[in-house]
Each structure stands twice: as structure tokens, then as C-alpha cells.
Amino acid sequence: AGVQHSLLARLGPSPGEWQGRLFSEVADEAITAKIETGGADCADITGLRLRRNIFIALTGDRPVNSYSNQDMQCFANRLSWLTANLNKRPDFDMARLNEIIDANEACKGAGLAQNTIESYIGRVRTMIIRACNEKRLQHGLTELPTIPVHAAPPMPRLAPDKNEIGKVIATGVVSGFLSDAMLPPLAILTGRRVGLLTFLRREQILRLM
User: Fold this and answer.
1) Half-sphere exposure of 51 (CA within 13 A, CB side)
2) Could you count the other beta carbons within 10 Å of the beta carbon of residue 186?
3) Burial readout 191-200 (b: 16 or more C-beta within 10 A, e: otherwise)
4) C-alpha angle with apex 169: 163 to 173, nearest 5 degrees?
5) Non-local CB neighbours of 111 within 8 Å, separated by 6+ positions
6) For residues 205 and 19, what is the distance between their CA atoms, to the nearest angstrom?
7) How far apart are CA 164 and CA 152, in angstroms?
8) Please, which pLDDT band fits residue 208 given cuts at 50, 70 and 90?
9) Tell me: the pLDDT tens digits for 38-92?
């Protein structure tokens, strides 16, 4: 019985059990909630919308409990041939996404890196599993997909020279703007990009005693 249950979990729910809401509805709800808590200018909003649209374009908009491990593996495989920053091109058309990916794969072009693919997978899986759990539905995402070996690995990063960082901080303090003085030290302490820290709000900063 245990082996049978494991096999069924790998396959995901059968078509007759697809009672979940559409992924697009779940994703839109998550985006709305993010706007309510982080504001319309929150840095995550654009990324969430992009992941929503790309997942639907590559995998289809279906009830959340209909997605399987195989669907997520196919999603990861397709992302590995998705050209980075494609959405920033003025002529980009989401309707042609599969065509663009096929062409890039055919010429063995560079796709998204490992970390980026994992970010896409993580956001989408979280929304699907949470929506299924809320309705007490069985989901089919019991395994994490394997990232294709041709996806670029994380790039090694070097810590900035402390003397140069001191100059940057001093320049920020002299400017007289609190943001210019605070952002460089915050970036060093948190490891976050300065561009993301600009969206930080006062209520998100906690003082730990």
C-alpha cells in the first residue's frame, strides 16, 4: 500500500480530482496580498507577475492540484533555455515565448542560471502547494525538479575592499541624505543588493536586544 501511495503521489491527482482553483487566480491573489503588505512599489511585485505569466505560458493555466512533478521538471527544463532579461526587450511578446525558447535551445544559447531557475520554481511551487493545503487538496508536487546541468552555476563573489567601502560610506554621510548614509552599511550587513534595499520600509526594521 505504501509503494502504491508513493507512485500515485509521484503521478499527482487524477483528472477527476482536479477541484483546485486555477493557478492564475491563486497567483493574482498572492500578488494582491503582496501589494497590500509591501505597497504597490514593492520590488517583488514585478518578479511575481513575471513568474506567473511565464509559468502559464510554458505549463498552462490549470487547477493547482493538477500539476505534477513532471510538469515542474518540464518547467525547469524550459527555463534553462530561456534567455535572461528577455522581458526587458521592447519587442518581447509572451505569446511567442515557446517559439523563442525552442530557437535558443536549437542553437544551444545561454539560458537562465541555476539560482534564477530555483527562484522561479520556488515561487511557483509555494503558491501551488499553499493553495492546495488551504482547500485540503492533494497536490502532486512531492519532489523538487532537477536543474539541467547546462544551466550556469552561481558566480563566485568577492567581498569589497574595506578601504573602498569606507570611502563610499563617508561620501554618503557627507551628502546629508539619510538614505545615502544608510544604504551602503545595510548592503554590507545584509548581503542584499542596494537596488532592493531602497524599497525597505521603517516598519520592516526590527531592533533585536
Assistant:
1) 26
2) 15
3) eeeeeebeeb
4) 145
5) 79, 80, 81, 82, 83, 84, 104, 150, 151
6) 40
7) 30
8) low
9) 777 777 888 899 999 999 999 999 999 999 999 999 999 999 999 988 888 888 8
The full length of the chain comes to 209
Model confidence over 14-31: pLDDT tens digits?
555 567 899 999 999 999
**Which tens digits make up the pLDDT trace of 122-156?**
999 999 999 999 989 999 999 999 999 999 998 77
From residue 27, how far is each of 22, 31, 69, 77 by CA, in Å?
9, 6, 19, 22
**Is the Cβ–Cβ distance between 91 and 83 less than 8 Å?**
no
- Integer Cα distance of 76 and 144 in angstroms: 10
Cα separation of 164 and 170, whole Å? 10
C-alpha cell at 172: 554618503
